[in-house]
Amino acid sequence: MRDDTPRAVTTICRALQEQIEHGLLPASGKLPAERRLSELFDTTRITLREALGQLEAQGLVYREERRGWFVSPARVAYNPSVRTHFHAMVAEQGRVPATEVLSARLMPANAQVCQLLGLSGLSSVYQIRRARRIDGRLVLYVEHYLHPDYFPGILDFDLTRSLTELYASEYDVRYGRVRFDMVPTALHADAAAALKVAAGSPALRITRVNRDQHGRLIDCDLEYWRHDAIHISVEVPD
């Protein structure tokens, strides 16, 4: 048998998918090492990786750098029309959220951020970079850009907490109108490093531009989600 034929890849995909669907390979469980799987399916590592890559594209398995392959857990529902924040959204679905601050600083706004927030050239913004987990798994890298005039001293607070709650409690600022843009993309180097995956891995980029209750442009978020971590669910009212 030729190990590198499409038939071999299809056979491996079907076998692993069947095991996942029947719960024999549990969600978040680690798959055997590639060498062991290659021996099991009597194939080459190249063919095996092609099969795993196809399953990864379908959202059934995922890979972490230096850790190996895992079965993807259930996705969380993301409804842009509901006013909530990451921790509340995840907890409401019976999952465990966590946030890690990667960096927080005042910096010159780049051209994209200036455009999103309506700033003039050479303006400064607060940048907060965070990585977020669901049930211990890294799923989201986000860059927050805040208009500094509205949030003086914010870098002195605990930035692992919800910014939505921090804005309300410390600055009497609440979200008003929000604009969302969503596009499939590939993870850039910083996002990939934060999520412990290879640069260029597939992702969903969600750009949020937020106004407050007075209509002022106050911040924007650039979210990079692992493509298998969420599904977008929106119900349109009558």
Provide key terms for this protein.
single chain, 238 residues, alpha+beta, Arc Repressor Mutant, subunit A, Chorismate lyase, 2 domains, six-stranded antiparallel sheet, two-stranded antiparallel ribbon, 7 helices
What this model shows, in words?
Keywords: DNA-binding, Transcription, Transcription regulation. Pfam families: GntR, UTRA. Residues 6-74 form the HTH gntR-type domain. By secondary structure, this protein is α+β, with helices and mostly antiparallel strands. It folds into two domains: 4-71, Arc Repressor Mutant, subunit A; 76-232, 3-Layer(aba) Sandwich (Chorismate lyase), CATH 3.40.1410.10. It contains seven helices and ten strands. It has helices at residues 6-21, 34-40, 45-57, 86-92, 111-117, 163-171, 189-195, and strands at 61-64, 68-71, 76-78, 97-108, 124-134, 137-146, 175-186, 202-212, 217-226, 230-232. The strands form three sheets. The protein has a six-stranded antiparallel beta sheet. A two-stranded antiparallel ribbon has the order 1-2. Strand 8 (202-212) and strand 9 form a beta hairpin. Helix 2 (34-40) packs across helix 3. The longest helix is centred in the first third of the chain and has 16 residues, at 6-21. The radius of gyration is 21 Å and the shape is elongated. The mean pLDDT is 92.
Query: What's the mean pLDDT score?
Result: 92
How is the biggest beta sheet arranged?
A: 6 strands, antiparallel
Count of domains: 2
Strand order of the largest sheet: 4-5-6-9-8-7
The unreliable regions are none
